[in-house]
Amino acid sequence: MKVILDLCVVPLGVGLSVSSYVAACERVIREAGLVSQLHAYGTNIEGEWDEVMAAVKRCHEIVHAMGAPRITTSIRLGTRTDREQTMQDKIDSVERALDRAASGPGA
Amino acid sequence: MKVILDLCVVPLGVGLSVSSYVAACERVIREAGLVSQLHAYGTNIEGEWDEVMAAVKRCHEIVHAMGAPRITTSIRLGTRTDREQTMQDKIDSVERALDRAASGPGA
Amino acid sequence: MKVILDLCVVPLGVGLSVSSYVAACERVIREAGLVSQLHAYGTNIEGEWDEVMAAVKRCHEIVHAMGAPRITTSIRLGTRTDREQTMQDKIDSVERALDRAASGPGA
Amino acid sequence: MKVILDLCVVPLGVGLSVSSYVAACERVIREAGLVSQLHAYGTNIEGEWDEVMAAVKRCHEIVHAMGAPRITTSIRLGTRTDREQTMQDKIDSVERALDRAASGPGA
């Protein structure tokens, strides 16, 4: 089962700057060989369910090991059985819908 | 690693009534022997990381098997290494903070 | 437009214990006269969109005023135009689906 | 109060293809003059709290007007009082942390 997952890991008890923890999670995801894309409020990841979830668990383990005693994470995740869809497919289909609307009913 | 997780599974392509799918997820969680509590926008679950995540995966498998071709799920999850904390502990500590505030500085 | 919203406010830079901040948000919601229900990973709130969103904003203002320099919040929110539905209605419909499944096909 | 918000709007009861609804939300956000960035599981938006929240409400109104009888939305949002931070600042600080780690302790 393929999954597209959006991950936002928030370490607590380590002050205000969380970028080093987010960067550590990025490395976990990349070293797992997963396709991913960082954005301003999380990271998109795509891959097989078990591999993606193993990376999420590894992020928690690493962030605790870096000294964060508490972590709160928010995740969105999607699966579908009707067809394969990549992260890029999702963005492309919204971009196409924007183009269609821009060209209007007379186009 | 213990986790407290808040799960909201949304099947797409099955119309407006999603309660039978949510109920199927409830059964998955209960049959896994996990402590859980349903609320109006999801379900709180507590347990060992791997057991809780296996239940989340099983929810996706079951909801697809019930006929939903697409699922989008939102999750919050927390881990901590400083101390053990149950779902009830979390609610109790907020309730105590509410009581302290209600009794005021003169109490 | 009515909304059912699930709110989880996380103050950063204030250490590990966040219950006093969550309790302050609870008071904001109650003082706004909104129907709400605390759970282990957030609070369900129902009401008119503008009133609920004003309470969410007030939570951020109060938590900053209590000394948290940074807040990250996660929200789920639902609106529907086909019929009115309360938080209790949502729970009841899942409970009924669980009962139907338990009584089985022979019932 | 400035906010960085990550928005994921999910229309229910309209089948499996939701890109036209997501595109309509993109137009709402752009027409509001807000800085935004689409990703594979949502859209990052930055701006003044009231303007961003007005756009979120307008998204729900438009998606209902397009024929979706039910919408479930997930949001992450962050505010901070210690300093100004844009979406690009957040990405840059993670990228810098990745570079520091790559160059290693001897750099």
Automatic annotation (TrEMBL), chains A, B, C, D:
SUPFAM superfamilies: MTH1187/YkoF-like. Residues 6-95 form the Thiamine-binding protein domain. Pfam families: Thiamine_BP (PF01910). GO terms for cellular component: cytosol. Transmembrane segments: none annotated. It comes from the Bacteria. InterPro entries: MTH1187/YkoF-like, Thiamine_BP, UPF0045_domain. Signal peptide: none annotated. Belongs to the UPF0045 family. NCBIfam families: MTH1187 family thiamine-binding protein. This is Thiamine-binding protein domain-containing protein. It comes from Thauera aminoaromatica.
